[in-house]
Amino acid sequence: MGYRVAVAGATGAVGREMLRVLAEREFPADEVVALASARSIGKEVSFGEEQTLMISPLGSHDFSTTDICLFSAGSAVSKQYAPKAARAGCVVIDNSSHWRMEPDIPLVVPEVNGDALRYYRERNIIANPNCSTAQLVMALKPLHDVFEINRVVVSTYQSVSGAGQQGMEELFSQTRGIYVSDAVERNVFTKQIAFNCIPHIDSFMDDGSTREEWKVAVETRKILDPDIDVVAHCVRVPVFIGHAEAVFVETRMPIDPEQARSVLRAFPGVVVVDYREDEGYVTPKECVGEDPVYISRIRTDPTVDNGLVFWCVSDNLRKGAALNAVQIAEALVADYLEEAA
């Protein structure tokens, strides 16, 4: 049985990646429709190596003709159109932050809490987590299952693609401009991003945290365990694609690096590359276009009882967004939609 699939926000960086991943993984679709705003009508996007899709207007799409729609068009668009699609019988997999903390909407990383998908019919909407959260919980899940994590401190180093295509263009234009002594123009980021780091992603909250930091904390607890304490510090760095995280965990059970390596290696979607030598670790550059979450620099944290430190990198456009959304769709097809058909 083939499914009718749509991608909303198909002209954006994540939307294009969704189409690429659907084609790469040969998702069982009889039809794939690329949706975007009216200003994108007439444009084409790639689907697979040879096929292109003409953009159709999201505003007039008949969702009763679609089984699954992957949304990557921002919170305002998802707020307006996701309920419309869901009421029409289309299952929405939404990449925005709008639905993530709704109690009756599952927030899912399939390898971590795929069983939460059984609640999808409550609203016909499934939320995709924040890109930093997705790779973090992939690393935490196997450790939590064995050693029982009670606290996580994480510093993220997030690429500009997390701010969309415009963020990538701003880094490129600023970098080029600096080399030719042009004035630096800022439109996306709060400060110059080229040759700089900005400890500010999303808006500030009353307690001094940013919403990005809040999202990492609350989403991790919703996906993994509400009893885990999580604090995050999120930094935008001048990297085009690939998020990195320095993670400090405290566990209830004794933990050592060798045990942690063994547990992490056995978890699907995680790859351990950890050699105490030059180049014995993975950086964002090496993870671009790759599906796994890579773990390196695993060592004991001597400042606390049962403490572990590690480095975690992943392609934020793939596992952090497009790949995870497609994996959710694959799990639906395998375990739910075929049964309902």
Word description of this protein:
This protein is an alpha/beta fold. Helix content is 32%, strand content 24%. The chain contains nine helices and 13 strands. The strands form two sheets. Strands 3-4-2-1-5-6-7 form a seven-stranded mixed beta sheet, with helices on both faces. The chain has a six-stranded mixed beta sheet with strand order 9-8-10-13-12-11. Helix 1 (13-24) packs across helix 9, helix 4 crosses helix 6 (211-223) and helix 4 packs across helix 9. The protein is globular.
Lay out the secondary structure.
Elements: E1 3-8, H1 13-24, E2 29-36, E3 44-47, E4 51-57, E5 68-71, H2 75-87, E6 91-94, H3 110-113, E7 125-127, H4 131-147, E8 149-158, H5 165-179, H6 211-223, E9 229-236, E10 243-251, H7 257-265, E11 270-272, H8 284-287, E12 293-300, E13 307-314, H9 318-340
Parallel strand pairs: 1-2, 1-5, 2-4, 5-6, 6-7, 8-9, 11-12
Antiparallel strand pairs: 3-4, 8-10, 10-13, 12-13
Widest β-sheet, arrangement of strands:
3-4-2-1-5-6-7
What is the share of helical residues? 25-40%
The main β sheet shows up as:
7 strands, mixed
Number of strands: 13
The fraction of residues in strands falls at 15-25%
**In terms of per-residue confidence, which ranges show pLDDT below 50 for 5 or more consecutive residues?**
none
Mean pLDDT: 96
* Structural class assignment: alpha/beta
Measured distance between first and last alpha carbons: 9 Å
In DSSP terms, counting alpha (H) and pi (I) runs of 4 or more, how many helices? 9
Order of helices and strands: EHEEEEHEHEHEHHEEHEHEEH
Silhouette: globular
